[in-house]
Amino acid sequence: MRITRAVVPSLFTVLNMFCGFMAIIHASRMEFTPACWFIVLAAGFDSLDGVMARITKSASQFGVEIDSLSDVISFGAAPAFIVYQLMAQFWHEPHGIYILISSMLMILGGLRLARFNVQLVGFDKEYFTGLPIPACAITVVSFVLDFYREGIGLEPSAARVLPWMIVGLSLLMVSKVRYETLPRPSRKALRKYPWKYILLLAAAAAAVMTAGGAIFPLFVLFISFGVVRHVVTGLRRLAARAHGKYDDEIIEPTRAEP
Of 154, 181, 208, which one is at a domain's C-terminal end? Predict the structure, then answer.
């Protein structure tokens, strides 16, 4: 059997999938802290498989499809099961409404990935349409890591917020709200988007210095920025149309100009 360069990025994708499986196993044992960290690790592998595909010049349709299948497991099914287990533990019995709410992470995340794959050719590379499923999953698990205590459970206020947060994040995945992509590491990208690299390095430093405690607030800021920009852009469109202008005459706030 001949081993090709495509094996390298696929290996990271498989590790992503395996981490999702391990997260489900730990969640089934009510071990939520390691379950959440396995999803964080899965996100690391998910970011590396694209990098390795570009380095080895082995990007393919197969890689796109297996990556999406892995993401459904690691960032859809695994966090959905964690949320279900937490809700069942807090309320002492698994009500149907909690099954429905927790499943939204998996179902709408799968729809988000399907839409992404369909739009992959010719989509706007500066933005993702809808909240990316890894960002949604990391927001959920960082929330759990911040507010869950072994042997005690979720803090009461956090338990009340959790269902509403899950509904909001799930709907954002299939929304038209746009979020910036990370530019490919290159001199050209560094010159064009220096602020993206500065913010990324600052966020990474904050996460390391706080032992992961800053991850949830940082993702809340990231998500909120996209929502606020979407609302502001919508208001500007309405105002422009009222003055007889067309959409292509509207420059979106914070959009990088070529």
Answer: 181
In this structure, the number of other CB atoms found within 10 A of the CB of residue 247 comes to 10
Q: Assess whether 148 and 210 both reside in one domain.
A: no
Domain count, the chain: 2
pLDDT tens string 10-68: 888 999 999 999 999 999 999 999 999 999 999 999 888 777 777 777 667 777 788 88
The tokens describing 122, both together, are 């010719």
Q: How far apart are CA 49 and CA 53, in angstroms?
A: 6
Between the alpha carbon of residue 175 and those of residues 11, 13, 32, 120, 152, the distances in Å are 31, 26, 29, 17, 35
Q: Are 93 and 155 in contact (CB under 8 A)?
A: no
What pLDDT, in 10s, does the model give residues 235-250? 888 887 777 665 554 4
